[in-house]
Write a structure and sequence with these properties.
The N and C termini lie far apart (48 Å). The relative contact order is 0.11. The protein is α+β, with helices and mostly antiparallel strands and 85 residues long. The longest helix has 12 residues, at 34-45. Strand 1, helix 1 (19-23) and strand 2 form a beta-alpha-beta unit. The chain is extended. It has helices at 19-23, 34-45, 76-79, and strands at 9-11, 31-33. The chain has three helices and two strands.
């Protein structure tokens, strides 16, 4: 941290969930757990009546055409015996 001048450590990704509370006391800078941060953000938005975004840069992107992907409940790998349900 001293070498890179980090002011905060952000632990991102599901495999690192919960690790922040384990290492927080060992580091001289704040440690943020992204999963906890996301949950807290949602907890703050719910009382405000936040609704899904339908316009602007945060709206859901338009559907894209997919080629070569199975769309039914019986993908080729299952038919070939690769997977079982």
């Amino acid at each position: 941290m001293a070498e890179d001048g980090a002011d905060v450590v952000v632990l991102a990704g599901a495999p690192l969930a919960g690790l922040a509370q384990v290492v927080r006391d060992r580091l001289p800078v704040p440690v943020i757990d992204c999963q906890q941060a996301a949950v807290k953000r949602l907890e703050g938005l719910i009382p405000l009546g936040a609704t899904p975004v339908t316009a602007g840069s945060f709206r859901r992107p338009a559907a894209k055409l997919s080629t070569g992907l199975s769309v039914g409940p019986d993908p080729p790998a299952m038919r070939a015996g690769g997977l079982t349900t």
